[in-house]
Structure formats: C-alpha cells, structure tokens
Amino acid sequence: MAKITVDGKVFDVDPNNNLLEEILSNQQDLPYFCWHPSMGSVGSCRQCAMIEYANDDDQRGRQIMACMTSPRDGARYSIDKAAQFRAQAIESIMTSHPHDCPVCEEGGECHLQDMTVMSGHTYRRYDGKKSTHTNQDLGPFIGHEMNRCITCYRCVRYYKDYAGGTDFGPQASHNHTYFGRFQDGALESEFSGNLAEVCPTGVFTDKVFSKHYARKWDLQSSPSVCAACGVGCNINPGERYGTLRRVVNRLNDQVNGYFLCDKGRFGTGYVNSSERLRVNMVRSAHDGRPTEISPTEAKSRLLALKGKAIGIGSPRASLEANFALRQLVGKENFYAGVSEVEFGLLSQIVEIYKSRPVQAASIRDIELCDAVVVLGEDVTNTAARIALALRQSVKNLGRELAAKMKLPQWHDAAIRNLAQGRKSPLYIIGPAASRLDDIAKQVYIASPADTARIGFAIAHALDSTAPAVTDLSAAEQSLVASIATDLKGAKKPLVVSGTSLLEPALLQAAANIATACSGAPGPGRIVLTAPEVNSLGLMLLMDGSQNSLGKAMQSGARAAIVLENDLYRRAPAATIGRFLSGLEQLAVLDHLQNRTGEAANLVLAAGTFAETSGTFVNYEGRAQHFYATFKPAPEIRSSAKWLCDTEFGAEPRIHVLTGGAAALLPNGYKLQKLTPGADWNFAGARAPRQHHRYSGRTALRAHLNVHEPKQEQDEDGIMNYSMEGVPPLKDSTIFSSPWAPGWNSNQSVFKFQKHTGGELLQSGHGELLLDVPAADKTWFAAVIQKPVVEGFALFPLYHLFGSEELTARSEAIQAKATGAYVALNPADVERLGLAASDGVQVQHNGAVPYLARASIAPGTVGVPVGLSGLNFQDLVTPGLALNKASNWQNPKDWRASNIIVSDAGSTTAYGRGVQGR
Amino acid sequence: MSNLIASTAPKARKLTPEEIHDIEHEKTHYPYAQAVGLEALKIVQKYQGWVSDESLLAVADYLELPPDELEGVATFFNMIFRRPVGKNVILLCDSVACWMLGCDGLKAHITKRLGIEYGQTTADNLFTLIPVPCLGACDKAPVMMIGNDTHRNLTPATIDALIDACQARG
Are residues B94 and B165 in the same domain? Predict the structure, then answer.
C-alpha cells in the first residue's frame, strides 16, 4: 500500500492499480469515459485529468491522466486544479452531441450526462455545424444512434478486444469517426447486449426495451438471478405497468461480473407472452374444454391430490417449489423431472463434486486460469457466460509477459501490443467447430466417446496412476502430449466439460484430469456445466433418491402433479403420451401453455422468476436468492405457495420453505445467509423495490379508478412493492439498481464496492453448498462404451437462441433463432445426393433442412435440441438413417442466416485451424 | 463474418493475378496479415482506381481478415478511395501557406472551369477535386497534385494549362 495526498486529503492506495481506480475506490468523484473496471485503461478520452506535483515545493505540478498513472507513494495530487482542463475536454467532446436527452433512452441513466454535469460544462459555446451520421440496423437486439457518439472507443474495446467480436469496428477518423459494421446486419457476438451498458451514452441501446420503454427511475426492480441456463448470472429486471420491461446486469464479481449473454438479457419476453397461463383451469377429460376456476378452488383441488399423486419436480423451478412438492407428495413419491440420461449425468456431477479433490471454478476463477482444455462442451451455446470468461483466460499470457516487462496490469493497449496475439493455451475437443475456435491453440474434432478417451489419456499423461488409454492414433497421442505439457506448465490449469453431449464418460474424464491437476496448489479446477438454472439444486434435493422420470412413469401412479415442466422435452413423445393418458388426475403448474398442460385436468398459473422469490443452485453448487420483481395478477402465484400444505401454514413465507429445503441440502444452513433475514427492517422500514424518484404512483391506475389503491404487500418480507423504505445501499444481498448522487448510470456501482471493480459491500456472491472433499486421488476407469451405430452417429447441437424452453418463446429470441435442421459434412451431403434446396428425412422424425458444416466428421450428424420441427427425444437410437426428402420445401422458420458458425458453406472460413480426424 | 450472412450484400470479386502477385510480395515484408491490409488496399487502388465493396471483401478474404477490420483501415486513410474517382485526382492544398497565397481563388477557378466542388467528379470522369492539408512544399505555394505529380507556384493560367493537358490526353 502507498499513501498519497489528493487536494490535502490523505488516501491509502494500491500502487499496482491505476490512480483513477484508486481515487474512485476512495469514494472521490473523478470523471471518466474510456476506462472500465473490466477492460483497463487506454487513456483516450482525457476526462480523468489530474495534477501531479513533483515534491512539496512544486506549486505548478504537471497534468496527468489518472487512468494512465500508477500512484506514487508519498506523492501529492490534485483533482480540483485540473477542473478547467476537464471542462474544456468535455466541451470539445460535446460539440457534435445532439443534446437530445429528453427523447434519448439513456437519459436519466447516462454516464455522459453525469460526467458533463460533473465536469462543469453547463453552457454550450460552439455554434458550428454538428457532424451527423447514418445509423445501421444492427439486428433485433441493439439500436444504433451514432449522432450521440463521443468517440470514447469503449464499444470497440468491449466488442472486439474483450468479447472477441469481429463484425464491428471503428471507421474513418477525427469528427467522422463511426462505430458500426461493414454493412447493416445483426451483430454476431452472443454478448452484443452489453454494448447498451458499456456505451456511456445512447449510441447503443436495448432495442427490445425500446419497444416498451420506461425511464430507469420508473422501473420497479429487485435483485434477481437469470433463469436461462445453469450459470445463474445476477440480473436486475425492471417492471412497469405489470409487464417486465428489461433486464440489466447486476454485479456479482464471482459470477457474471459486469456482463451478461444475449439470451439472458433479451430472453425474458415470455414473462409478458400472450401464451402465459394467467388463469387457473379444470378439464373434466383429457381432451375436454377447460373451465376457469378461482385460485381458492384451484388450491383446494391441488391439495386434494395429496396422498394420491406422485410429484414430478423441475430443474427450472426454485428449490422452494421443488421442496414444497416433495413435502406434499412425500419423499418416496417425488421424482426429478429430468430424462433418464440427464439424471445419470447430474448424479455423476454431484458424485464428482462430493468425492474428488476438485473445485468447481466460478466465472471469475475461469478468467484467471492460464491453460484450459474443453472436453466436448460447446459452452457458447450451453452456458454462454463461461465462453466469455474463457476468452479472458487466454489473455493471461499477455498479462504475464507484461509483468515481466514491469508493465502495469491495467495498461490494456500496451499489454495487447506486447502480446501480439500470443495467448495462453486453450484446447477444444468436440464433435464440431465452436465459436471459441479462434482463440484455441488447437481444435480437435472427435466424437463424444473419442473425446472422453482423449480426456482419460490426458489425465494419465499428467499422473501415471490414472488409468491409461491404449488405442490412441498418432495424432491423438501428440495432442495428448501437447495438452499435458501445457497443463503441467500452468499455474492454474482448468478442465471444462458438461452434460450437453449426454456422455457420462466425458464428465469422468474431466474429473480425472482435474484430479490429476490437484495437489500442492489446491484442488483441481473443473467446470461441469449443468443444463438448467436449478439442475444441481434439484439433484441435491433428491437427497440420494434415485427417483428419475422413468421411474415415475413405471410407478403405476394414477395421479400426478407436474411442476414447471414440459415432459415432452424429457422423453419420447409416445412414452410421455402413454404415461399421461394413463393418469386419472394430472395437475400442471407452469408459466406457459405447453403439451403437458394441454393433457392436464388441473392447470395452475405459476409465477415466473420475475414474479416470485426463491433460490436457484448453479453449476458450481452456488445457491443464490432471487427476489420477485413485481406482483402478478392474483390468479398467478408462486409454485411454492400453490403447493404448500397446512404443514407450513397455508400461505407460508418463502423463508420457511427455504429453511425446509435447507435441511436436505449439504451445508444447507448457508441458505439463511442469502438474505438479511425475513424480518429485516430498518426502523420498521423494508427495502423498496421502486426508486425514490418513481413517478406517477398516484396516477398509474387512474384510468381504472381515481382512488389510489393500497400498495401491494410482499408477505415474504425484506422488500416492499413501494418507493418507501430504506434503500439497501450497503447490504448487497438486497441491492438491485445502483444509484448515487451525481451518478445516475450503472457506473455508480463502484460506490457500493469494497474496491472499484471488485466485491460488493457485505458480499452478495451467493453461497457455495458443496465443500471440496479432503479426498485422495481416485480415478474413474477409462471405460468407454462405444455405441454400435447403424447409419449416421448423432450428436446433439445446442443453440443459445432457441434450445432453451422458456427463452425460446420470447419474440426477441425467436428473431435470432431458427427452426430445426441437421448438420452434415459436405461429403455426406454429396453422398446423400442433396441439392441446395433439398431437405432430409430423419428416421423416427420428420423432414428438415440441412446445413453443410466442414468441421463435422463424415458419418456423423449434428441434431439441434429444442428447435421446432424435430424432437430430439424421439431419436432414441445412437444411429440415424437419413434420406433425401421428397417434395421438399424449406419451412418458414428455417433461417440459416441466424446460425453463426465458422465452418458452414463451401468457402474456407478465415482464421480457424480446425483439424479433423 | 459467417458465410451465411446477408444474401443481398455485395460479394467479394476475384482478385486479378497482378493484384495477387503484388500482395504476395508485400506479405513477405510483414509478420501479420493485419499489417499487409493497408498495402493490399493501395495495390487494389493502383489497379482499379478505387476500392469498391467487392474489392474490399476480396482483400479481406485473401488476407483472412474480418471485412469490418479492413474497412476500419480503408476509411481511416483519406487517400484510400471508397468511392469512384476520376482519372485525374486533383489534390489542392488548402493549408496555411497556400491559403495566404490565394488557394481559395484557385479552388474557385477550378470549380468554375470544371463545374465540380470538393469531393465531386466531372461528368466525363476525368477529374476529381479533393482538398489536402499540406503537400510539404510551402516555399513554393500554392501547390497541388494531379495524380502523382506535384505542381508548384500555381496561377489560374498554369492550372488551365495542366487541365488542358489532361483533357488532351483524354
């Protein structure tokens, strides 16, 4: 630590950080644009000017840019004395800005507004012509208004340098500088939405939000968790007039940091969907017309099933909802609502975490790793935020080189220049090219089973006590040797795999590699992705029970309660159809209409993550609490509340159920740390969900009734559906939308961090439920069952946009998704005699279009999961017969242009060193 | 950029053998493809007169660079022409020395004679007029370039003679 004096005040600072970061961390206000805690400094905007004095006698000093300066121990600085320069700098930046704040969506949460006011530029002297630009159509997610640009270059530094996008950049120079694409068209990066938050003004805005816009201070919001995949990014949803308007990032320095993926940000439209279940219904027969019933009647009919029905839980429902169902039907009648294969995979993950000396790596951990091997998991499509973290991990070599040259770690441009494209090693082994191939040291195409074999061989090369694999090809042997050398040479090696290829041997091979990497520096680092937001929570709640969905269907039950689960996505349609038609009573609780609900006698409208509170457990075993953002119509209730029997009182508060679930979980006591306690208050006041500047409270419902209604009550406590209360400025467990005087934008979050860019005050990481066991190295046997395949060997392909059940029913996601297809090697396309416009008849299924992908091995076929037009669950055999479809016409929802892959079409893709077997 | 994107968008043309030969020669001078980008654009401009979308895409394909990145280079440099220009590009200096010695009058003379403003091209495609900030010959101001030749101590009469010569060449 160093001591510096700034305008007479003494601060303790870390000399390894830049001065701007340290000034902000000491709660001082200093304007900036181009600097960002996740992206380091380039010193381009000249806003953070300060004066540095040579010694005590120096009265004049010299001007410095704080973001480009390492604090000097004992030095004297001034913020005030550079005020005039900063005002001049922003005055010139603002000459072409349109001052259209009243019609700009950034208005009221604009970093540029804040900085302009802070810098003292309050009167415009420039009366020349402003330069203007033509905007581009950047696709369904991001709006573009270039005239507002102040050329801080943050968008490029994020999109290209941080997120690895290639289809966006700066054009022209001086006052013509333009930020956009070569041509109009949708941004290709899966992380484009962050531009709306990274841009300090209104150049890049959330287009989905634009369609039903409200000012930041008019949005009711709460700390929440994204329900779109197993990563569990922290989000801050905003509601107005009873509809969910947008999702923005909520900082959790261990999980999502400052960034979200586009599925999470733009995929919540289903909450407002016309396909939402908004009333409760009964049907006398399976195919009868539904009749609406009151919530009271619905609940009593549901509880009447107690003692008769089995319960089928859900990996996308909260711990509390699953627990309530388990209590209602009894442990022995509670079944995990996941497919047989998935049940096995998730059990395997839990076993690995509980019995091996390995630690699940958080997103932040991944960013710090310096050698990575990815076994078969296409994380960009299954757990996108992890892909963005892997992109940061390969930059660690540059940081290491910089440290040797004594370059400060914040010196972004210098480090990139020094690295010249040199990267920390990342190896990707899997059945097709992926979106991370451009940063990989080597990509190796192999079937899921062969990927596992290579994985086992890597573990053996790292630790000879691990089981060996004998029949490797020469190419595989050299790959294994190269990976083992890089993992051994790394300070923080990491292995990434997951459930998506449905291959348990992959998980075991990954566990062996992580086990081999464990030892002196600590447990081996591993990432095993889980398919859904609460997959791991559900498995932990099973508490050793082997009740899978298959067992539920064999149980002979005559009645069933299905919790937030479309069973048709879990098993072959015929099997599910038989099971459902054999039931006398079927109760379904869900958000949206689906095939399972259509077969139900009793349908209950269940609140989404945005309308209910509860707990999700992510892929690491990290439990995180989410608070309801708004109160739904009285007909819609949280599943947890619907399912509550009198055991907990008819309408128990959520913490009672959380406590009940906690008793079943490892380290369950930690769940109570997720909130400040159900009865938290300050002088009797709770935390408000609405901003203190929330407008129109008394007028919101005036078109219905001029009498102002009572504020909605939240029986769960802690937060209010109101602007009244004590904003939780310090306690990040109930901290949603950051705001501080003078800091209206999301940049204000630094005011609530222990150190700028780092942890929030009073934590807010969630709680890790799984301890790293003090286990010896034990190995999974390298036994891989190679399926005997007739026809094409199929492997699942996931799509970030379209494979997940709920987000796929959001309009914005549909605009970026496609209908089903099959992906084939061009040689197989030729062999099947397919012309460009032909379709493919898939055995056990319908006909679909095809996509030729050069990286896919001949004889294999990639089959998308969850896209309309193909039911993956119906493809029961490992081999598939494919034939040319006769009388074929491409369906309307076939949108090949939405599939962004490097290996499609006939021409060579650039920059991708894809190697085949 | 994915090969599947944007069917109505311009497509890369084929580079000519001469262009490929020259680009290959430049490649031997630099360790990275990015560094060759600017030289390759200059080569294309040398043969084509300007850099069309189709040419830019062709260079991007050839060097395996994202077109967006190459477009950043192409648009950064004023002398890479992203729109068609006339056979003779007149670069008239409007910097301080030339301004003191009457470049404004010369510009008015050219505009009157050829009927084009800065940035415009004559209908016969012979001339394009572009201002430049300095040609490094202030001691002989006013100065302009036509093509690769610098012309000094200009007067309306010398300009007329230069234009006549260009028109005579056709």
Answer: yes
In this structure, what are the phi and psi dihedrals at residue A589, rounded to the nearest 5 degrees? -110, 120
Are residues B144 and B165 located together in one domain of the fold?
Answer: yes
Domain carrying residue B130:
88-169
Number of domains making up chain B: 2
With contact defined as beta carbons under 8 Å apart, do A345 and A683 qualify? Answer: no
Cβ contacts (< 8 Å) between A170 and chain B: which residues?
72
Mark whether B101 and B159 lie in a shared domain: yes
Residue A709 has pLDDT above 90, yes or no: no
Interface contact flag, B3 A909, Cβ < 8 Å: yes
Same domain, yes or no: B72 and B96? no
Q: Chain B: nearest CA to A175, how far in angstroms? A: 11
The β-bridge relationship of strands A839-842 and A882-884 is: antiparallel
Q: Which of A704, A607, A600 is nearest to A654 (CA)?
A: A607
Residue of B nearest to A901 (CA): B2
Across the interface, which of B4, B72, B76 has its CB nearest the CB of A897?
B4
* Cα A430 → chain centroid: 22
Q: Tell me the shortest Cα–Cα distance from B79 to chain A, in angstroms.
A: 12
Averaged pLDDT, A564-573: 95
Reduce the DSSP state of residue A106 to 3 states and report it.
coil
Distance from CA of A168 to the nearest CA of B (A): 6
- Cα–Cα distance between A285 and A293 in angstroms, integer? 16
Chain B residues touching residue A172 (CB < 8 angstroms): 75-76
pLDDT band at A905 (very low <50, low <70, confident <90, very high): low
Q: Does residue B132 lie within any of the structural domains?
A: yes
**Residue B124 shares a structural domain with residue B145:** yes
* Domains of chain A listed by start with CATH number: 2-93 (3.10.20.740), 361-527 (3.40.228.10), 792-915 (2.40.40.20)
> What is the predicted pLDDT for the residue at A549?
94
* pLDDT, tens only, A480-517: 999 999 999 999 999 999 999 999 999 999 999 999 99
Using a CB-CB cut-off of 8 Å, the residues of chain A touching B76 are 171-173
CATH number of the domain within which B159 lies: 3.40.30.10
Chain B residues closer than 8 Å to A909 by CB: 3
For A901, which of B2, B6, B7 is closest by C-beta distance? B2
Please give, rounded to a whole number of angstroms, the shortest distance from the CA of A155 to a CA of chain B: 14
Q: A with B: how many residue pairs have Cβ under 8 Å apart?
A: 69
Round to whole Å and give the CA distance between A135 and A130. 16
Chain A residues touching B64 at Cβ < 8 A:
910-911
Which residue type sits at B169?
A: R
Residue A762: which region, alpha, beta or left (left: phi > 0; alpha: psi -120 to 50)? left
| B59 shares its domain with B33 | yes
The answer on B122 and B92 residing in a single domain is yes
Same domain, B98 and B52: no
